[in-house]
Amino acid sequence: MDFSWTEEQNLWRKTVREFANKNIKPIVRDIDSNKKIPIDLINKMGKIGLLAPTVSKKYGGSSLNWTMACIAAEELGRADISLAIPVLYLVEAAWGFILDKYGTAILKEKYLPKITSGDAFVGIAVTEPEGGSDIIGSLKSNAIKKEERWILNGEKIFISGITESKKMGGIHLTLTRTDESLGHKGFTFFAVPLKNNPNINTSLFEDMGRMGISTGGFLMKNVNLTNNNLIGIENKGFYYAMEGFSAARVLIGATCVGSAEAALEMGINHIKNRKSFGRYLGSYEGIQFPLAEHYANLKGTKLLTYNAAWIMDKMYNEGIFSNNDVALAAAITKLKAPKHSFEIMNEVADWFGAIGYTKEYPIEMGIRGVRSYSIGAEGTMNIMKIIIARELIGKDFLPYK
Ligand SMILES: Cc1cc2nc3c(=O)[nH]c(=O)nc-3n(C[C@H](O)[C@H](O)[C@H](O)COP(=O)(O)OP(=O)(O)OC[C@H]3O[C@@H](n4cnc5c(N)ncnc54)[C@H](O)[C@@H]3O)c2cc1C
Question: How far apart are alpha carbons 167 and 169 in whole angstroms?
Fold first, then answer.
């Protein structure tokens, strides 16, 4: 067992940190207020390999493994604690990977080079109005095969990157039902372009946080696609979706670790410099003990996150570990990282006193942003617990069949 970073990993971390400190950190407040990530920043991210870096080099990616992808996610989380840029990064890294692995050659040639350069967006559209947790029971969108074409109808809701996809172009990997009789074994994944699509109506929500990236929905009315837009094999979509969610959950862990590290550093700096009752805040037990607790939680979460990334790398590169092992490690990471990151930011806001409640300090952006993950983007906390329990006591005990 070796817990040290390699030279390559250290160099990558340094590269991303320098890039993020120069190009991202100074404009995080603007991104939050203007509710958009500047397109030239997205293009710059593409130039240094920060857009869908898990995609193969053939399509402009860097073929990064998951440990390296997590290092970048952590550094982006440190720089942008609102988590808008980390969300853009991790959604594209996870779903760009699935597109690369299962997409048709024509689809990949059309979209992946643009996704990796920042000229197109790739998102995920699973959730529906009747509920995201019980997607097997609530998925109503359907795709019907008509000769060589597919006709899609249905509605997706709470989907990240609606505005980005409409502006930049790109696709949302969209889960539909193709065989009513087969339950989740009758789900198929399609690449659905939103931009200038007359058969799609989009809508937007006003979110609490991570304002730089949009959340919305889209209604599909007879969306007409060819076989080229099929992701993988018909009726296997559920499994591709779960594979992508595992990857996204591990990356979420890394972004939460990064944002919590940044918050704790801000907090430590403050308690070492702010005096109350004639002494530095940091000299009081009431401050030190929570600091120690939160630091221990952060260290634990970081180990869980990189352990999950390591398990993924072992599975994809050496065939050791299964999708279930990855799902378990990813669920543990997603259960712990957003929770601890939120708690750390909340504590640090206390240390700041009144100023922590203002927009003078970024901590409020962090609290608003990380809540998206502790509420449920990419799966709620209770769903993570259901996955963990499933892996511990078996599928027979699942609340659904
Ligand atoms: C900011 C944001 C961005 C998102 N982006 C995307 C995206 O890009 N693509 C996408 O497809 N989806 C996206 N989502 C949707 C997300 O995946 C869903 O919100 C999530 O799956 C939960 O679904 P729901 O909101 O319908 O809540 P529900 O499924 O209605 O759940 C409500 C509550 O009930 C609990 N619950 C449900 N079932 C059980 C059970 N059996 N036992 C115990 N508790 C249970 C849940 O844990 C939750 O607390 C996003 C969500 C947010 C907040």
Answer: 6
